[in-house]
Amino acid sequence: MRERVYRTEAVILRRSDFAEADRLLVIATPAGKRRVVAKGVRRTTSRIAGHIELFTHATLLLAVGRNLDIVTQSQVIDPFSRMRADIARLSCTYYAAEIYDTFTHDGDESRPLFRLLVDTLTALDQSANPDLVLRSYELRMLQIVGYRPHLHQCAVCGELLTAEADSFSPQLGGVLCPRDRHADRRSMALGGPAFRLLRYLQSQPLSAVDGLHLSAAVRSEVEGLLRAYLYHLLERDLKSVAFLQDVMRGE
Ligand SMILES: [Zn+2]
């Protein structure tokens, strides 16, 4: 049997109003995604309210409820204040949270995915290159959930890829060698710098993006390739994509 009260680290992914003064929260935790209730937090007297803002990284104390567990205490670990004050960073965070939400099911335990989410939100709060943080996050997340794109061996024949490869296939799951470039009629052109950036992001830690100085063209090419791959896997665009594109274009 589960204990009646337990403590967990969490990121608030979604919130909605519930009953008279409560909120229903969807939270990411090391033990997976959960739905919980925070009671009375829409009242001005609530001591928990300030600790369960959207995307906050917090420690929660939860009581096991009959249906949903109940937040009884909350302590902020990181409020990501800089991200909150910057619409571009905030929209990147929406997108990162939506990806986590889309690729996970309630209760699927994944400590690596949770750590990746926290590291990504921390980087989105601080990095000079929030867009590249997202690209690195997409590649890392795809690896954890089992959809790592092929960037070193041809997605068709498995041969080691050289700098001559110039074709990316979302359908076939990665880069194609020159011989197999016509295996997918809808494959996308892949420029040398974009190919190198993809490989770099896949092999280097998240923090490595801070030192990168790249043209807008290469950034947007890599964004387009990964977006097409995610679109293929999900069979739809993520809701926050349009919002994110509007914000980035407005800068
Ligand atoms: Zn091949």
Relevant terms:
37% helix; elongated; 5-stranded mixed beta barrel; alpha+beta; OB fold (Dihydrolipoamide Acetyltransferase, E2P); 3-stranded antiparallel β-sheet; 251 residues; binds zinc ion; de novo design (two linked rop proteins)
Structure notes:
- The protein has 251 residues and is α+β, with helices and mostly antiparallel strands.
- It has two domains: 5-79, Beta Barrel (OB fold (Dihydrolipoamide Acetyltransferase, E2P)), CATH 2.40.50.140; 82-250, de novo design (two linked rop proteins) (Up-down Bundle).
- The chain contains seven helices and eight strands, in the order E-E-E-E-E-H-H-H-H-E-E-E-H-H-H.
- The protein has helices at 81-84, 87-103, 111-126, 130-144, 192-203, 216-234, 240-250, and strands at residues 5-18, 22-29, 32-38, 57-63, 69-78, 167-169, 174-176, 188-189.
- Strand 1 (5-18) and strand 2 form a beta hairpin.
- The chain binds zinc ion (ZN).
- Zinc ion binds at residues 154, 156-157, 159, 176-177, 179-180.
